[in-house]
Amino acid sequence: MKVSFTGIGIISAIAASLCCITPVVAFIAGIGGLALTFSWIKPIRPYMIAITILALSFAWYQKIKVSKSIGCDCETNTRHSFWQTKTFLGIITVFVLIMLTFPYYARIFYPVTSKVIVVQSQNLVNQSFSVSGMTCSGCEEHVKHALYKLPGIISIDVFYKTGKVNVQYDKTKTSKKAIITAISSIGYKVKE
Questions:
Q1: What is the Cα–Cα distance from 171 to 141, expressed in whole angstroms?
Q2: Phi, psi at residue 78, to the nearest 5°?
Q3: 55 vs 12, 26, 62, 81, 157, CA distance in Å?
Q4: Are 34 and 22 in contact (CB under 8 A)?
Q5: What 8-state DSSP symbol labels residue 149?
Q6: Helices 137-148 & 2-29, crossing angle to 10 degrees?
Q7: What are phi and psi of 109, to 5 degrees?
Q8: Domains parsed from the chain with CATH numbers
Q9: Phi, psi torsion values for 113, nearest 5 degrees
């Protein structure tokens, strides 16, 4: 029974962070269009976190509670397998914490990108885009990384909470259409 609650905790922790893990995996693997695959999880993430905490709490309760003695003098020196030890449950608990907090540190998996671009003021364009499907700071970095690959991009501000992407670019080197294509190619939807 203890192992089943541990398994529930692991599965729900991974599921709770899948919306943020998928863009990072897509970036590392070089697969662009996976970003929106699990963005539907974002609204149910708090419930998945609650299930995870309850399952692991119950698993720890079962592991720590004092077992009642039966009242016989028989030897009960049974050795449990590693999968039933507090050590294994501790490892699982640390793994679950890493998974649950993934959205808060996902951005570290993206390289820091900065460029110095000289542009004439008449060619400078500030454009704002509404983008759906972003669920965490990892998504912000995913969008920035894709856009900084375009020539002429000067600065990018991405806000996943509001779904806004503000881009400052040189209109002689890139275009609104190229920016929309770049965002769409990594799996997010640009609302026009």
A1: 23
A2: -85, 135
A3: 9, 30, 11, 21, 39
A4: yes
A5: T
A6: 20
A7: -85, -5
A8: 2-66+83-106 (no CATH), 110-191 (3.30.70.100)
A9: -120, 125
| Distance between CA atoms of residues 45 and 16, nearest Å | 5
Which two tokens mark 51?
């299930």
Strand pairing partners for 126?
168
Helix, strand, coil content of the chain in percent (nearest 5) = 55, 15, 30
Convert the pLDDT of each residue in 66-76 to its tens digit. 666 555 655 55
Whose structure tokens read 């002429």? 152
The beta-strand segments (E) located in the chain are 124-132, 153-159, 164-170, 189-191
**CA atoms of 4 and 56, how far apart (whole Å):** 10
Q: Are 110 and 159 in contact (CB under 8 A)?
A: no
What is the per-residue pLDDT across 41-64, written as a single tens digit (0 to 9) for each?
A: 778 888 888 889 988 898 888 888
What are the structure tokens assigned to 91, written together? 């490892």
Phi first, then psi: give them for residue 31, nearest 5 degrees: -105, 115
CB 9 within 8 A of CB 92: yes
**Considering the entire predicted model, what is its pTM?**
0.68
